[in-house]
Structures are given as structure tokens and as C-alpha cells.
Amino acid sequence: MLAALADPDRGFDAIVVGEFERAFYGDQFCQLAPLLKIYGVELWLPELNGPVDATNELHLSLLALLGVHFEA
What we know:
Helix content is 33%, strand content 12%. The chain is α+β, with helices and mostly antiparallel strands. The chain has a 3-stranded mixed sheet with strand order 1-2-3, with no helix packed on it.
């Protein structure tokens, strides 16, 4: 999926994560967020009932908490 981000004909503009622990741990989201932004792809999480807003401190706090919680 990451390789497909740069393809302008990729056929998707969002990634929907059903379970956070299957997607990220630690600070992986912070590393991936700039790449998603460059290619205009949103990330949706059930914990947020929709898209992640990387400029929203509450969203970032939740992602940090989830990342620490599911690390290890």
C-alpha cells in the first residue's frame, strides 16, 4: 500500500484502519503522516470515528497514547 501512494491512479484517497494495534505502534504514525499528507491520503481510525487530523492536538495525543499502549 505504501508503494502505491505515489501512483496518481492508485484508486484510493484514504486508508481505513479497523484496529489500531494492527497498523501502528510507537511513533510510526508520526513517521508516516508526512508521507500521507504529500500524497493527499487520509487515515481513518475507529477511535476517532473518522479521519485523523494531524493538526489536532487531541488526535495526536490519542495516537501517542495508542502507540505506547500497543508497543511491545
